[in-house]
């Protein structure tokens, strides 16, 4: 499996998208931190980038990469290698490159300008989101044979997680505003890894007062250690479940 | 060496393999023949574990191949259309395969030398013609001295010189007592190699018998003529 990871990472480095992604993150984080005199404002801008750009690049690049490595995967499957190891090697290679890219691109500026609890929370959420969206991309790519359809579906998935889901949540909030729905909202937010990440970071920033009563309920839950552990566990589930399902699918796939 | 029992595989509505049972002993050279879409490649791919059959069992040296991968180190496979990572060079692909196979014992570089890869090692896979890709596939199939060779349309797309080199190589390996499984549309070139003939149609195995028996039954010396005779007989029996 180490050999597979090695070949995947050298291949990813050879096509320069990940390198430009790292450079882009570096440039944008440095710009944000040097533009704002208040570094908390800088973090808030960085938060939006982490929550929108990171999932987008991870999911789309990974999907296209897996479709383009169809030949490589086919070649490996006819060799004395376990299918599980091939698939996990692919996942580790992709997730590893995105983690390193984010650590360099966003990690260095954060450590230089804002080495606080909030900064590290953004770093942790960014890395988790990168890995989660690689896993979701792998599930989509193994389920859908057609490349164009697969890429279309992953774009829709990203749209759903970053825009549509919030729309649905707002709609629910207005429709049921006469009922005490603050607590169920915590459950609903678990259905979207980007939302969990956003709430975790915002609560660390102490701007939850701006969110009214819902903010207070969220603070009650996410502010406690148990709440934090639960939400990180849910994020881990978002990583493990798509990966395991795709692994099972790939194990039985006809090539 | 390889035995398959009641292998069936369905792709949607299409029955690609229909209850195929067959045993290949070591030392034979088997020609897998049939019209396009008769399930030859699907059958080969199920032996390699690339296609997972819906039902049935395949044994390799007496061991079930389902959820196993080590048996594949005894197989050299040359696919019908060799597909390789596009931005690797020939040299890198060869090195990578050596690295992945982790082969102990000597490597067989005959084809690498005969096909004159030395001058091509730095060419990227995406710039190669179909024939050169076939040569890469062939070189890789023979490189690790496997006990079983599975060749899917080995000479399709090769020029006559390369085709002859490959044929000589197959004869040489056959003499070492290896099991060789070949599918081909160009039947004439199989004549002097083949010992057994397996004929497939619509996912079913129509017959599997020694070549000399087939020659005797049809009264034809050439494989192509013998098969043609059989196909005509089949059509007549369909009409009747």
UniProtKB/TrEMBL annotation, chain A:
Entry protein name: ABC transporter permease subunit
Keyword Zinc-finger in record: no
Organism, as annotated: Pinibacter soli
Keyword Signal: no
Transmembrane region(s): 12-33, 45-67, 87-112, 118-141, 153-174, 221-245
Keywords, in A-Z order: Membrane, Transmembrane, Transmembrane helix
Top-level lineage group: Bacteria
From TrEMBL, chain B:
Species this protein is from: Pinibacter soli
SUPFAM superfamilies noted in UniProt: P-loop containing nucleoside triphosphate hydrolases (SSF52540)
Domain ABC transporter: 2-227
InterPro entries, per database record: AAA+_ATPase, ABC_transporter-like_ATP-bd, ABC_Transporter_VariousFunc, P-loop_NTPase
Full protein name: ABC transporter ATP-binding protein
UniProt keyword annotations, A-Z: ATP-binding, Nucleotide-binding, Transport
Pfam families, per database record: ABC_tran (PF00005)
Molecular-function GO terms, alphabetical: ATP binding
């Amino acid at each position: 499996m180490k050999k597979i990871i090695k070949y995947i990472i050298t291949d990813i480095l050879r096509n320069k998208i990940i390198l430009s992604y790292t450079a882009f993150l570096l440039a944008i984080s440095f710009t944000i931190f040097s533009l704002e005199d208040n570094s908390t404002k800088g973090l808030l801008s960085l938060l939006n980038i982490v929550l929108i750009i990171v999932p987008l690049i991870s999911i789309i690049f990974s999907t296209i990469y897996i479709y383009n490595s169809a030949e490589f995967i086919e070649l490996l499957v006819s060799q004395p290698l376990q299918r599980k190891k091939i698939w996990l090697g692919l996942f580790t290679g992709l997730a590893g490159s995105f983690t390193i890219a984010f650590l360099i691109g966003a990690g260095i500026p954060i450590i230089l300008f804002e080495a606080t609890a909030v900064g590290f929370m953004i770093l942790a959420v960014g890395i988790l989101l990168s890995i989660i969206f690689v896993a979701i991309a792998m599930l989509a790519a193994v389920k859908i044979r057609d490349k164009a359809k697969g890429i279309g579906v992953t774009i829709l998935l990203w749209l759903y997680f970053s825009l549509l889901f919030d729309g649905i949540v707002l709609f629910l909030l207005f429709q049921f505003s006469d009922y005490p729905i603050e607590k169920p909202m915590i459950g609903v937010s678990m259905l979207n890894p980007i939302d969990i990440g956003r709430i975790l970071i915002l609560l660390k920033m102490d701007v939850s007062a701006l969110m009214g009563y819902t903010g207070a309920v969220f603070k009650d839950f996410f502010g406690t250690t148990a709440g934090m552990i639960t939400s990180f566990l849910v994020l881990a589930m978002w990583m493990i479940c798509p990966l395991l399902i795709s692994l099972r699918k790939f194990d039985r796939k006809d090539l | 060496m390889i035995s398959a029992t009641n292998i069936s595989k369905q792709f949607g509505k299409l029955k690609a393999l229909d209850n195929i049972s067959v045993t290949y002993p070591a030392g034979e050279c088997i020609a897998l023949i049939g019209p396009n879409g008769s399930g030859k490649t699907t059958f080969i791919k199920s032996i390699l574990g690339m296609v997972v059959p819906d039902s049935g069992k395949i044994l390799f040296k007496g061991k079930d191949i389902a959820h196993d991968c080590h048996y594949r180190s005894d197989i050299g496979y040359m696919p019908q259309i060799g597909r390789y990572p596009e931005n690797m060079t020939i040299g890198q692909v060869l090195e990578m395969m050596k690295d992945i196979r982790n082969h102990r014992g000597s490597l067989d570089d005959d084809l690498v030398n005969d096909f004159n890869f030395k001058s091509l090692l730095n060419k990227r896979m995406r710039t190669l013609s179909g024939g050169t890709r076939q040569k890469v596939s062939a070189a890789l199939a023979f490189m690790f001295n496997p006990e079983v060779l599975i060749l899917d349309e080995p000479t399709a797309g090769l020029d006559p010189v390369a085709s002859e080199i490959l044929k000589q190589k197959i004869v040489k390996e056959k003499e070492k007592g290896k099991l060789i499984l070949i599918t081909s549309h160009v039947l004439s070139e199989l004549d002097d190699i083949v010992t057994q003939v397996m004929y497939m149609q619509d996912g079913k195995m129509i017959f599997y018998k020694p070549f000399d028996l087939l020659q005797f039954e049809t009264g034809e010396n050439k494989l192509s003529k013998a098969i043609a005779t059989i196909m005509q007989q089949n059509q007549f029996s369909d009409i009747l």
